[in-house]
Amino acid sequence: MTEPVIEIEGLYKTYDSGFSALKDIHLCIPKGEIFALLGPNGAGKTTLINTICGIVNPTSGTIRVNGYDVVREFRKAREQIGLVPQEVTVEPFAKVFATVKFSRGVFGKARDDAHVERVLKDLSLWDKRDNITREVSGGMKRRVMIAKALAHEPQVLFLDEPTAGVDVELRRSMWNVVRRLREQGVTIVLTTHYLEEAEQMADRIGVIQDGAIALVEQKTALMDKLGQKRLSVRLADPLSHVPEALAGYDLTLEDAGRTLVYTYSAHNETSNIRPLFADLEAAGIDYVDIDTKQSSLEEIFVDLVGDKS
């Protein structure tokens, strides 16, 4: 792993009521990574982000952002961070350009209208620069929030459900913006309920459940390790049952016996496919078509969290 930008060690957050929102979180996120944080509602995703950003005080543990402790060096740490919260909150009577420009000033950055212009153009907001924010669409308001978060040139960008309520076309456009930011060295931490988003964009995926990190994996490694492949064999003639000669395989019949389905691990069981077809031929079973499908990240995630989601 390259040099970490976010370092979390032994993080706990317990509220006065006794509710334990975060439990012994240990996490390192390197520079330039897109890290997707997944978990069911109430798992602790937003609490973790707000604690890193200094909005929520930790009960114990340490958090460093670009080397700065978020408690002891709050101002320096916060300067490293751009935050786009779930809630759409923009100044309703300010113009788009002025809103983003003001956000830069809040962090004590020198005026740089050229940078504000670049951010607005990257987010396809330049032609809306003189619009009052309340006049733009909901999707555009969310883009304005991202522009505000980028105005002070942060090293880390937190996107908490960034495309909630955004149409598919706009969502994919925003993915491209995020990828360009990563190319510029910005570290992205993303929470999302759109698992397609994590599957398309993330380098690594962390799953948080009941306030604790359940796992952190490279996206491809996670899918290889936990993903299932499904081989569907369309039969020339339907079967009433799986023949005894094929009992050694994990086979089921579907579509009134017209499709034989073999489910296997994508990680280490592909060697069984060739013997399966040899045994089909030996059993005199003809087929007319085959199809394979690998588990999506959504299916893997549902398996991981089970009924707790």
UniProtKB/TrEMBL annotation:
It comes from the Bacteria. SUPFAM superfamilies: P-loop containing nucleoside triphosphate hydrolases. Keywords: ATP-binding, Nucleotide-binding, Transport. InterPro entries: AAA+_ATPase, ABC_transporter-like_ATP-bd, ABC_transporter-like_CS, ABC_transporter_ATP-binding, P-loop_NTPase. Transmembrane segments: none annotated. Signal peptide: none annotated. GO terms for molecular function: ATP binding; ATP hydrolysis activity. This is Multidrug ABC transporter ATP-binding protein.
